[in-house]
Amino acid sequence: MDYLTAKETALKWNISSRMVAYYCKAGKVAGATKKGKTWLIPIHAKKPRDNRMCGNKVVIGDNPELQGGLRKINSMDSDNVSVYCISDVYKNLGLTRETLRYYEDIGLITPERNKNSQYREFTFHDVSRLMTIDFYKKRGFAPLEIKELMKSGSHGGYNQISKKISEIENNIRVQQRIVKRLSETKAFCEYAALSANIFSVKELPLYSVFKIFDAVSALNDYKDSVLAFMDLQEDDILSSLVRAVTFDRSGYKGSKMCIVKQTSQNKQAEGKYYLEHGKCLHTVLEAVSHDDSLMEKMFFAAYQWAEKNNAVFKGVVYIFIRFVELSGQTERNFYEIFIPLK
């Protein structure tokens, strides 16, 4: 019978000689015999089934070059001297050229340049840095924030996690407020489509009045008359303004702008000013900006309704801008009108 040595069998079976010796010692190779320190394996012996290969297990083949310790395994990466061009990097890491150039511009990466062609050359260290950047980016850190983390030294990333969580939670609250306002605006637009130019009786909620001034065009008064009473992070100017126009049977008498905010309280607090609230004649009107005919049309239509319904007005009309539609250089305003009833 012809025999092969463990080393020859290892080459034939594409495993290490140590693994061949293990199979022989375990009695898994029929006819194998040991002569001195050398195992002799029948030339036609079959490679034993590797019990590590079953189910969903991943099998890692033995590599003779790595026998002897973990340092050799680690050196596969640390000793990698390969150089990659920019197309290799962005194609294989899911990045764009523009992203790589931006990272380089702000100093996140510093690839070398070829002395002859001046093309960027990326080492495996650069690749590892890009994967680290992606790690932090997917956890909400912006590139410039990651750059600051690079400067912060040991535990910098860990110490910033709680701060980033608080920042993101605050952003979520801001976005939730925006969604709420968008939903309210959407609901108004849907309501306006069905009720435009139609009169009905509706309750006006209680609105606190913080400031009264003459006209919406009085821009020089805004700093003290408008902005001082608003939360500039949350409130927009249009939604904080209400035009209050006084009138009687002969026509309009006066006009003022009011800075208001709806209050959740049911009662008026002493020493504070409020819009007239309670039951009002209500309608929705739409018109392009500076349509002077709107007020006149509303005046006569409201009194016609009052005569038919035996209603009496308190002599003031409140005009809220609820939505503005932009079309080129033209603005079309959607007004919600409340006329308090006695």
From TrEMBL:
PROSITE patterns: HTH_MERR_2. CDD domains: HTH_MerR-like. Keywords: DNA-binding, Repressor, Transcription, Transcription regulation. Pfam families: MerR_1. It comes from Blautia hominis. Residues 83-152 form the HTH merR-type domain. InterPro entries: DNA-bd_dom_put_sf (IPR009061), MerR-type_HTH_dom (IPR000551), MerR_fam (IPR047057). The keyword rRNA-binding does not apply. Transmembrane segments: none annotated. The keyword Chloroplast does not apply. This is HTH merR-type domain-containing protein.
